[in-house]
Amino acid sequence: MIAQALMDGLIAGSMIGLGAIGVTLTYSILRFANFAHGDFISWGAYFALAVAGALGAASASLLQPIGPFSFGWALPIAAIAAVALTGALALLVDLLLFGRLREKRSSVIIMVMASFGAALTLRSLLEFIFTSKPAYYSRALQIALKLGGGLRATPDQLLSLGLAGVLVVAVHLLLTRTAIGRSMRAVSENPQLAGVVGVEVRQVIRVAWLLGAGLASIAGVTAGVLIQIRPQMGLDLLLPLFAAAILGGIGSVPGAFVGALVVGVGEAAAVALAGAEWRAAVAFIVLILVLLVRPSGLAGRTA
Fold first, then answer.
1. Which run of H or of E encompasses 145?
2. Count of other CB atoms within 10 angstroms of residue 166
3. Can you tell me the distance from the alpha carbon of 101 to that of 228, in angstroms, rounded to the nearest whole number?
4. Buried b (16+ CB within 10 A) or exposed e, 209-230
5. Helices then strands (H, E): number in the chain?
6. CA-to-CA distance for 89 and 80, rounded, in angstroms?
7. Is the pLDDT of residue 72 over 90?
8. Does residue 299 surpass a pLDDT of 80?
9. pLDDT confidence bin for 238, thresholds 50/70/90
């Protein structure tokens, strides 16, 4: 039971981790907690659902499952489109709301309250367009594979875990080995000084929105494949996202992912030992403990 809870926690943590990276990037570069980030997860899932449905209507063969997975080629194609669409949505929200507040040099609390309003608006739009009824990419049933040591996981779950790991490494390399990554790190340290030395701060902000929203979109698609799609799915993940980002250390991509794995394993352990009703409490407990014991997080970064 303990071994399987560990596996379940790693799978859940991989989903949380992709969203937590967006949270930590947004916070470190834009200097405010974006509570609308969870709704980018929901929008990404629904964008993929809409595109996959259109592709399936055009060619039924695209809906045929790929090998051992529960979905066909329509979903990977739709996921790529969802990344682009969610990134465009994030840029639109920044253009209409956050960008104007930055120009007016609004305080952090104003930015946070604006993100609450944006979250409510985005969530309400989803419910208006798609209704609150749960949706699914596929209703195909999968048999869990025996991995040894009493561990079991479905092919979809293993793909989710592997994809998250690859994306985390890719983002880490982007931030540490490329010019735009170095610019993002410079802006996260000191935006004014970065602008003085020639860094295009507006471009960095746009890249941060695109990167964070794109990863949130993949997290939404992954959650939709493994669980289900609902307008509230991003809201349900919001507290674990912030707990993981703070635990890992604001500004640290590997730290956010490790923090997400810790939160995921903690949730799985709580379900196995105490019951599903305690799952939501784990992220809150982790968040409080980190703020009390080590506010700078595992990576030692400060907000």
1. strand 145-148
2. 10
3. 35
4. bbbbbbbbbbbbbbbbbbeebb
5. 12, 2
6. 14
7. yes
8. no
9. very high
Q: Using DSSP, state whether 89 is helix, strand or coil.
A: helix
CB 251, CB 24: distance < 8 Å: yes
Kindly list the distances between the CA atom of residue 164 and the CA atoms of 49, 143, 220, in Å, as whole numbers in the listed order: 20, 22, 12
CB 222 within 8 A of CB 14: yes
The end-to-end CA distance of the chain, in Å, is: 38
Domains in the chain, start-ordered, CATH in brackets? 2-293 (1.10.3470)
Taking only the tens place, the pLDDT of each residue in 19-33 is 999 899 888 898 898
Size (the chain), residues: 303
The tokens of 46 are what? 């629904």
Six-digit token string for 144: 């869990």
| Residue range 109-136, pLDDT digits in tens | 999 999 999 999 999 999 999 999 999 9
At 244-295, the pLDDT tens digits run 998 988 878 888 999 999 999 998 888 888 777 788 788 888 888 888 888 7
- Token pair of 89 as six digits: 């949505």
215 vs 210: CA distance, rounded Å: 9
Spatial distance between the Cα atoms of 228 and 222, rounded to a whole number of angstroms: 9
Torsion angle defined by CA atoms of residues 123, 94, 182 and 109, in that order, rounded to the nearest 10 degrees: -80
Contact 9, 268 (CB under 8 A): yes
As a whole number of angstroms, the distance between CA 47 and CA 44 comes to 5
* Model pLDDT for residues 217-233, shown as the tens digit of each residue: 999 999 999 999 999 99
